[in-house]
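Hey, I'm writing a tutorial for new members on how sequence and structure tokens pair up, and I'd like a real worked example in the thread rather than a made-up one. If someone can provide the structure for the chain below, I'll link this post from the tutorial.
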Amino acid sequence: MKRRNVIKSLTMLPFVGSIVAKAESTTHTSTVTPPAAKRDFFKELGVTPVINAGVTMTFLSGSLMMPEVLEAINSTAHDFANMFELQDKIGAKIAEMLHVEAAMVTSGAACAILLGTAACITGTNAEKIKMLPNLPGPRPEVIMQKSHRYLFDQAVTTTGAKIIEVEGVSEMTQAINKNTVMALFFNAALKSSITHQEFLQVAKAHNIPTFLDAAADVPPVENLFKYQKMGFDMVTFSGGKMIRGPQSAGLLFGRKDLITAARLNHSPHEAPIGRPMKVNKEEMFGMYAALKSYIERDHKKEWEDWLQRAKRIGSKLETLQTVKTETVVDPGPANSFPSLFVTWDQSKIKTKPKDVLVALKEGTPSIVANAKGDNTLVVGVVLLRPDQVDVVAGRVHSILQKALTV
């Protein structure tokens, strides 16, 4: 069909359409299809939606993704991409944003620990990558402070490496040998026998790569840049906590040669140790969007908003006899943001924080909060949607009021 005929036929459509519409109106009472009801997957699957008045815990699905992240996920879901190219391009952009040599998106911070360890063991050696975690000979060794041992260091031993515990600079120095491949610093450890600077000094003197796990260590935003400036060779942050990207995404960044080796141990390469921890393209785009959004955010305004939420809930609760509230900022480095601490005279309000937690969780809507010891209810405010602030205040108030003896 010639172009002019196509155009001519298009001009006939309104006329033809009106005839069809008139014909249909004589046989049907209505030609308008009602909009389909929005599908409620929580209801369909019998899953209880939860208001998170706690912290960014994985079992509570981390945090809620920012609108920019959802837009990135939805807008990229309709086309295919070469995953090697995508990791290249997104890694380069993230490295540029963080002012580092190289970066990559991982399936969470635990995956980043595994890949970082693997990178230090194998380098770019294809045979070693293929054999991991069953390399012949002595097991590779990773040095950690004894007080830094934690649940997630299993990601280290998954590679076949052995963790060597040390206390103090002297022990760390003596522990380094020909099998030492990496030194891991857990940034949120409650105590350290070796400072960041001492740790780096010893490792660098023996040419041992250093890794810092800072998974939950924003805010403040400055922490994203702080540790590589100190001299750590690799750093990881979780993507699904306060950066508010996909929960199953994370960041690994630092020295280019080590990030290159980490990528060789990861999907989409076939069958390296990190293959089961693949990251889909939507998560990569989402993580990029989340980091960009987080860096550009007005952090002072966000912090003030959190303080106002705490004040609002506190004002509601303090209308009850003996209830006192205080806004407390965790000293960090992990989860360093404000929460509301709530106390009361338990001889007047006859309930304990642990009982309030049960009532909140089992009520409708289900709310998860925390407690500190036997006397303090901890209400997290940073993960609440704006419309949930009064809901949480009202529910806690109602539970305490019912327990109040007159």
